[in-house]
Design goal:
By secondary structure, the chain is mainly beta. It has 1 helix and 8 strands.
Length: about 140
């Protein structure tokens, strides 16, 4: 057993005693939940959702529209592709998030536009036009 293995087993024992206090040291405990703050606004008859997703790439993010609900999920794995590396300290976390936003109108799933620019996910959403009641004239035959 080398020094690194001894150190990790000692840290694992300490982690059991002190909970997540030592999470920054243990590679197996690198997952964290990211809240992805967002702004939602309406302009010119469309809804706009802007969400902070720093470090996420388009392949890491999923946007789903169902009725009047938008669900955005993401997984950030950016720094964990390194193999055969001995870390002396690891503070860059693995993030995931899931946010669901309900809007006052049903949305057209074919009219959704999403792009990530400088760490901000911008989603443009178009509501489905509500069918307005129409008065029908009844005629005598």
């Amino acid at each position: 057993m080398d020094l690194l293995e001894t150190r990790e087993s000692d840290l694992a024992l300490l982690d059991q005693m002190f909970g997540s206090f030592l999470d920054w040291q243990l590679p197996s405990k690198r997952h964290s939940y990211f809240s992805a703050p967002f702004d939602l606004y309406e302009k010119d008859g469309k809804f706009f959702l802007e969400m902070a997703v720093p470090g996420f790439e388009p392949k890491d993010v999923n946007v789903e529209v169902t009725g009047g609900t938008v669900t955005v999920t993401g997984e950030y794995k950016g720094y964990f592709d390194k193999k055969n590396v001995r870390y002396y300290r690891r503070e860059l976390p693995y993030h995931s998030f899931a946010r669901t936003v309900t809007l006052p109108h049903d949305l057209d799933p074919d009219a959704v536009f999403a792009v990530i620019d400088k760490g901000v996910l911008r989603i443009e959403l178009a509501p489905i036009k509500a069918i307005s009641p129409k008065k029908i004239d009844v005629k005598l035959t």
